[in-house]
Amino acid sequence: MEKRAREQFVADLIHLNTVGGHEDKVAHFLKAAFDKHGITNRIIPVENGRSNFYAEIGAGESDRVVALEGHEDVVALGNPDQWDHAPLGAEIKDGKMYGRGTTDMKGGLAAECIAMFELAAQSTPLKGKVKLLVTVAEESSPQNHMQGAQAFTKAGYLKDVDAMILAEPSLGQMNCANKGSITYAVTSKGKAAHSSMPQLGYNAIVPLMAYYEAQQQFFATLQARNKYLGKTIPVITKIEGGQQLNSVPSSAALYMKVRTIPEEPNEWILKHLRAIIKRINDQQGAQLALKILGEKVPVVTDPKDEFNQILHQTAEKIFQHPIQVIGSAAGTDASEMIKGNPQMAIAVFGPGNRTAHQVDEYMVLETFHKDIEVYKQALKRYLS
Asked: What does the record give as cofactor (predicted)?
């Protein structure tokens, strides 16, 4: 494809408003494009109005399989008046394309699709197979998101995959790891009473404060550090309690997001949090409870895996400068997909930058075009 056609393909994706719950638009757009190129594909319904998309190329003479992965949804546009460029306009200025999803991650998804179009059109077919796995709900479902990745995993699409590239924004680097996460609430049940007679009630906020202090002391003891991911990061994101100023609160809750590493596994952390809750309930007669809202496992793969090495070497050759191998604090669909094949190598490598989720999000088009070449050359080297 010529550069102009490549850029128009991205622009057409950006024009589609797929803020959570409307991903079918992308699935049908991709089906039409892959049908045009004569590539095997299918739409896979996940929820009402939300469908995964799958495509594959390759002769199948080799048992090697590489998956390319991306998601269809984008985060909310925010206030359009704060944008200097229309959020869905895909305007090009000074070598950058602006719009929601250019960086996270319709730009990366488009690069993967175009790489497959161009590989399918070459005279010598690949001996191995390339799978394209495009998901819903990576960004936009409450708490326990990634239902699209879960659907692919449960259906067995990852079982034969040797390596996977996620085209999430990688800031000019290659990620071989991402943190896991635990999203949870700790609720406290009390008894309402008039604030002039607090002895007739039970203040739900008091034991919740005790829990928060004990939790902070626990997190302060964590010392493990992963080579690529650093330390476990706990953040309190919301707190609520009571209904009016002259009443003893009958309920309260705090909400947490903990970014986790393999050295301090999710279940190990949850075991300690449950122990804190039990201790406070026993000591204070409190009614604290832990509710898990979402949980993703951390992912760390070997950057020296054969495919990851090929990808890294190819990227350095095309970009003509060193590419750093790092980890990411943010989660990806890999946290779900690794469950379907713990042995597969995983790399995050995409054309996005630090403008993800911001107003005037953009993608540098030169990076986009180079990433397409990286995907093509790495896949040909590994699968031919």
From this structure: Zn(2+); Co(2+)
pTM of the entire structure? Answer: 0.88
Cβ proximity of 47 and 22 under 8 Å: no
Domain shared by 187 and 169, yes or no: no
As for how many domains the chain has, the answer is 2
138 is catalytic: yes
Q: Is 73 a known active-site residue?
A: yes
Do 150 and 30 share a domain, yes or no? yes
Q: What are phi and psi for residue 130, nearest 5 degrees?
A: -115, 125
Same domain, 26 and 94: yes
Contact call for residues 18 and 138 (beta carbons, < 8 A): no
**Active-site entry in 23, 24, 73, 305:** 73
- The CATH number for 160's domain is 3.40.630.10
Catalytic residue among 7, 24, 104, 138: 138
- 3 state DSSP class of 102: coil
Last residue of a domain, one of 296, 323, 353: 296
Single out the residue of 65, 64, 98, 95 nearest to residue 83, CA to CA.
Answer: 98
Alpha helices in 169-284 (DSSP H): 205-220, 266-284
CB-count burial class (<10 Å; 0-12, 13-18, 19+) for 197 = exposed
**Domain identity same for 259 and 197:** yes
Same domain, 330 and 285: no
In tens, the pLDDT along 256-307 reads 999 999 999 999 999 999 999 999 999 999 999 999 998 999 999 999 999 9
Would you call 129 helix, strand, or coil by DSSP? strand
Conformation bin of residue 293: beta by default, left when phi > 0, alpha when psi is -120 to 50: alpha
Place of tokens 């959570």: 20
Q: Is the pLDDT of residue 384 over 60?
A: yes
Rounded CA-CA distance 105/356 in Å is 8
